[in-house]
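[09:14] KT: can someone run the structure on this one? pasting the chain below
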Amino acid sequence: MLKFYKYHGAGNDLIIIDNMNGKLVLSKKQVVLLCDRHKGIGADGLILVESRENADCFMNYYDSDGSIKEMCGNGIRCVAKFFTEQKNFSMEELLVATRAGVKKVICNDDGSFSVNMGTPVFSHNDFPNGPLTLENISFDFASMGNPHAVGIVKDLNQISLLEIGPRVENDPHFPNKINVELVEKVGDDYFKVIVWERGGFPTLACGSGACAVYAILKNENKDMGEVTLQFPGGNLHLSQNDEGQIILRGPAEFVFEGTINL
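[09:31] RB: done, structure tokens below
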């Protein structure tokens, strides 16, 4: 029997499995089954929490289609929550290794978590080095360890994410596919965002996508301070430090735990 924990960050739900001893190896088929919302536990992704010499742990992250991905901004906060609750971690900072580098997570007094997500990259082999119009929307691009296409629209209610998302994700301009964020401005420091996750599905929130949105907005307004991004699953808060690194702040919540027979 396999012990698992279910967490979510702003509605982006993850299965977390303690694999600090490194004994568990999951196949792509098993990851897909565990994330299946009808035949398994159900989740947007799965994280094996593993040991790493240069950090408190390694976040071995899989999307629900079984593909290995660089990192997950909501998932890393869930890992921090898991450590504080299940591993009796009492320090204020947690170093989490990801495929996009080691990230520092701060455990805030209000129960939220702040993550230094690093510096955005605007020039990358995964996307064009400039704006591109697709589906009558002008997209800009940023990588936070994984690639994102960010489009600003006037009214999200007029957008069919289920139609636009997969067409942009699979456009020939993106050799490794791409995550898609569509953004509506509500106020100077408040925006609504919907997400199409690379791998073929919408999610209630995306942490690295939130950082990519902020990076694009910050490029257009250098004086921008902290902003709130409203996702369907909840709010995330973004800012930038003096080194140009993006700080993601938001919740992480325990849902349930159990065992499953693979």
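[09:33] KT: thanks! The domain at 132-244 is CATH 3.10.310.10 (Diaminopimelate Epimerase; Chain A, domain 1).
[09:34] RB: yep, looked fine to me
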